[in-house]
Fold:
Amino acid sequence: YRRVIDLHIIDRIGRIPLRRLRPDHLERLYADLLDHGRADGTGGLHNKTVVEIHMILRRALDDAVRRGLLVANPAQVAHAPKRRPLSSTTSRIWNARQLQTFLASTRDHRYHAALWVTANTGMRRGEILGLRWGDVDFDPGRLSVTRSLVSVGYELHETRGKSRTARRNINLDPTTVEVLRAWQQQRRAEDPEFDTDDLDAHVFSRPDGTPTHPHLLSDAFKKLVRRSALPSIRFHDLRHTHATLLPQAGVATKVV
Structure:
């Protein structure tokens, strides 16, 4: 939200006094974004992005109405673009063989353990990077998801998770436990100051022990997918892949 506001809203309508803001200001904003909204000057933004910008403005201006700064919310009247159906029929998940092929191709990469745990638990990117060694219980094979590491204006912030149900326990299969144990040994080898008893240390940290920025993990994933020649998916689609493969493996829907 912060990035969207800085990139697309402030420069275009930020100087209009709040009480003078009208629906036609917003409609011209949306039209301009659809035609010329890309920061690199190569064209307009996708309908979905402009709809999200409209929702951000509508929510902010609702707050202004509640605070008595506006009599009515102009975003409630302004016509926003409608979401267009996705034109691509390309699958956004991998099947079991494709996932297996990808994980095998990343075996020697530093992020292999993070990608493996993501694919075998369905955790979100921020949850993976917010994981601390105190959240991992090797003996019963379980980890606790209690926080998330997110980027706001490229600065890292820790949150309590996307929702109340995001805080949960996940059972780990034996292979994933072994992958985590091997990763712990790798961390000990690459960082002389790494302490296995430091339960507050981030599991998937950088070599110097500092947290891994979410953008770094996503960028590395994109490069690995391109090298693999597999169908292109986003990092978050590993979560969708996991949720699709679980019922195929006979896991009960309620558990999924």
